[in-house]
Structures are given as C-alpha cells and as structure tokens.
Amino acid sequence: MQQRQFFGTDGIRGKIGAGKMTPELALKLGWAAGRVLSRSGTKKVIIGKDTRISGYLFESVLEAGLSAAGLNVLLVGPMPTPAIAYLTRTFRAEAGIVISASHNPYYDNGIKFFSADGSKLDDALELEIEHELTKDLVCVESHLLGKAARIDDAAGRYIEYCKGHFPAELTLAGLKIVVDCAHGATYHIAPSVFKELGAEVITIGDKPNGLNINDNVGATSMAAICEQVQLEQADVGIALDGDGDRIMMVDHQGNVIDGDQILYVLAANALNNGTLKGGVVGTLMSNLGLELALKRLNIPFMRSKVGDRYVMALMRQHHWRIGGESSGHILDLDHGTTGDGIVAGILVLAAMQQQQLSLAQLVKPLKMLPQVLINVTFDSETDPLSSSAVITILQHVEQLLGKTGRVLLRKSGTEPLIRVMVEGEEMALVTSFAQQIADAVQRVSKS
C-alpha cells in the first residue's frame, strides 16, 4: 500500500495554521475530495463540525472547495461525528465531512470523511484524494458551481435517531445520570436524549465558547465527572469526547469504566439476550483482562491495529457485531456504521435496565490487569522504535514479564507521540517497566 502523505488513522489533523491544517490545504482538500467522491450523482456533501473556534474558518474554505468541484453543500453546524455519518446516509449524500480534532485541545483541528453509506473512507479512497491534491485546482464552469444550504432540523433528527436504539419497552425513569459533553459537539444533543428517555440528567461540560473544548472535561479528563457523580449520588456518569464518537463511563461509586469494560458489558448482554453475532474485536491496546473474561463466556476475541477503522475492517471481515477500543470508540454494527458515544451509552443503560443491575455489578466479572500507558513526545525526523537501545530494553522487559504480561510500543496516528504500554500482574512492576522504556525512548528522541 502506498504511503499516505496527509491522512492519518482518523483523517487529517494538526495545529491550526501549521503543517496540514491551513486554509489553503483545506480549500484544495474540499475540491479534491469533491472530484473523487462525486460518483453517485446526488452532488450533495454534508459538513458538520465540533465547537472549536476554527470550525468557522475550515467550514467556509471546504464549502468553497466543494463548490469549485461542482458539489452542493449542506451545513449542519456543531454536530457529533456519528450524527454526520447518520445524516450522510439519510440524505443520500455523496459524502459527509466532519471538522474536528476529537479529543485534542482547541488549537488543533482536523478533517475527516464519511462515504455515502456512513462509513469512514478506506485507504484506497484517501489515496485517490491525495493524488488529486497534487494537481492544480481547476474550477468548474459557473453554471456548474455548487450551492450551500442549511439543514435546520439536523439536531432533532439525530436526537430521535439516538432514542430509537433504546428498547421501547424500557425507560430510564428512576435513574440519575451525569452527562459530560466536553464543551463539544454533543452539548445540545446528549442531555436531551437521556432526558427524553426518562432519566434525571445533570449536565457538565455543556457551555462551549470555542476555546474550552476538552479542557479538564470529557472522556479524556475524568476527574470532573467522577466528582460530580459522587456529589450528586448519581447512578451512572457518561463522559463524551469533543466530537461525540467516544465514551467513558463512571459507576455509582465513582469508578471509571473504560472502553474495554463497556465492550464486555455489551458482549455479555448480547450473549444473555441471544443477539451476539460471533465474537468481539479489540485492539493491540485492549486489556488482557477483557480477553480472559470473554474467554470464560466462550466469546471469541480478536485484536486489530489501533484505530477504529481497523477494528471495523476486522469486524466486517468476520461478520462480527461488536468491537472497539479501550479509549472509548465503541462499534455495534446493529446500531450504526461508526463509533457513537451517545448510542453506546444508551446500550449500556439498556443492559442495566434489562438485567436490573448497577454498572458496577455488570463489570464485576471482568478483572482488569494493571496497565500503564506513557506518551513520549518525539521529533518526527527520528525513529525511536528502530533504536538498538530501545529494542534492548524492550526485549529485556518482555523476557521478565513472560506470559503474564505484554509490552506495546507504537507511534500515535494523530499526534507526534510514541505510546509506551506495559501490562502485567503487579502495578508497581508494570509502572517501573513502562518508565524504563519511556526513558529510553526519550533519550533517543533528544539525542
């Protein structure tokens, strides 16, 4: 496969005004994508964004690029990423575009695409778009230029879509839920969904100002919601990330419930209901405890490369229904074509209500092994993973862990980071090993 120059594991992402995320590139990207994706004849592309201040800028230039390629644009404003996937399907659009850097700070932004069926673009299509980017931008004739319009009822449509995944015979009445919207794209969606299903909802992270997205709130910063759940004596907490495709949860005791635990709850409940199809797909980062717990239920488990696109590919290859990442990307092909934090939360709440168990009780059979993840910044011109010093310490740690643990080193697909993960039976030992490897990576990066 040809090396991609612009696209990472989840579209194009970076610091605003630098590298890939410039107005000039976004303009040409809209044009290039329009030329590649305008195949079904509808000539429509939907654009959504999260709440970053730079969303206005990139929305405008993408619209211009698409118009120059002859495509009409439907704008929905701030909307969760999975909402764009849904709307792309229902409006029979050529493609959907999301302007978001997901869990990154406000000064980053990104652009990612959905195909007409609501799935993320495969590598081949992204390469086609990159090839178009090497060409000179040529505008279609004036009478062929695209127009722009707004979908005024997009939020209402998506709220009803989310509610439709909750069993009609159940209600959330009697549950108190804390919802953290990360000052992101779900701020005007998620609270309404859970309220309309009957829950008492306390909301935090629901006042975006363009600069506070993911700032000490949301799925990557769980302290605020853990505190709020305990303060309110809530039954459960639901934390979403900036664009709403990831979820982390909190049980009534204030314990964080991550993506691996959510996968276990969904798989075990599907097995109990007789609706499980095949097994579960995780990633190289999935906790070994998840694999062992599923094995006790005779549920097959497979690992993909890190990235929900690779999870999805393996699920489709084996015709399995459930997969995801420990970071909170949860996929259920009976309930959507991409990761959806709100829908995943609804499915967990449905499991609680069906089994009349708390979230803590649902995850109790899963014993998570101690796992330490350290992110090390590196210079993109160096390759610490090929360093003999790093390889030596890695092999030493793997020998000491034996079959009771794992080590994983990988480059982030969205940030200039080396992710060092060590997993084993004893937290102190795992922490020490992870730090030793991280220190070795750091030394190479600075040399």
Description:
It is a single chain. The chain is 37% helix and 19% strand. It has 14 helices and 18 strands. It has helices at 23-37, 55-68, 81-90, 123-133, 154-163, 190-196, 223-232, 259-273, 288-296, 308-318, 341-355, 359-363, 388-401, 427-446; strands at residues 12-15, 44-49, 72-78, 95-99, 108-114, 148-150, 176-180, 200-204, 236-240, 247-250, 256-257, 280-283, 301-304, 322-324, 330-332, 371-377, 406-411, 417-423. Helix 1 packs across helix 4 and helix 8 packs across helix 11. The model has no long low-confidence stretch (mean pLDDT 94).
Number of helices: 14
Strand order of the largest sheet: 1-5-4-2-3-6
Q: Structural class given helices, strands, pairing?
A: alpha/beta
Q: What low-confidence regions span 5 or more consecutive residues with pLDDT below 50?
A: none
Major sheet? 6 strands, mixed
Q: What share of the residues lie within helices?
A: 25-40%
How is the quaternary structure best described?
Answer: single chain
Mean pLDDT: 94
Number of strands: 18
Rough shape?
globular
Strand content: 15-25%
N/C terminus separation: 32 Å
**Radius of gyration, rounded?**
22 Å
